[in-house]
Amino acid sequence: MAISLQKGQKVDLTKSNPGLSKILVGLGWDTNKYDGGSAFDLDSSVFLLDANGKAVSDKDFIFYGNLSHPSGSVVHQGDNLTGEGEGDDEQVIIDLNIVPQEIQKIAFTVTIYDYETRQQNFGQVSNAFIRIADNYNQELIRYDLCEDFSIETAIVVAELYRNNGEWKFAAIGSGFSGGLGALCANFGLNAG
Predict the structure, then answer these.
(1) Of 106, 110, 120, 121, which alpha carbon lies 20 to 30 A from 97's?
(2) In angstroms, how far is the first alpha carbon of the chain from the final one?
(3) How far apart are CA 49 and CA 159, in angstroms?
(4) Binning pLDDT at 50, 70 and 90, where does residue 80 land?
(5) Residue 123 binned pLDDT confidence (cut-offs 50, 70, 90)
């Protein structure tokens, strides 16, 4: 049975699951019905961060335009343009054993594509979640975002981080205004 977390909680991943190396990270959401005239396109992105919480280069930013880290440790499974249907809307596969040693944190984010033109924000999104599953798609950890985001256009959903040679999971649920550009700046990258 999966461990269900609340915002701010942290839990062991590898210590309580010995031998775990490959994981699937699933992110999902629903969009509320509204008459804005534009479809929603939410995008998950992954930032591989050093001890200072910064990405060292653009290669440490994994998203629909850069699906794989050079190490092969983090591979995005591609962009879902509609978010329709049940279950995960986007997935990322991670091999924890080959994440480069200088990477101390892996941050999972979701942004709204073209939010300015479409006048969209996370107040119009519901049932957002992140889940960690093992190689057999057995769910280990789940975090349902219950926060009521209103004007935010980007969210840091959760992080995996190293702690004494083990990987831990932290439920973050932190909203940002300014979309992907704000996230990139936060993690030390230039979005332009």
Answers:
(1) 110
(2) 43
(3) 10
(4) low
(5) confident
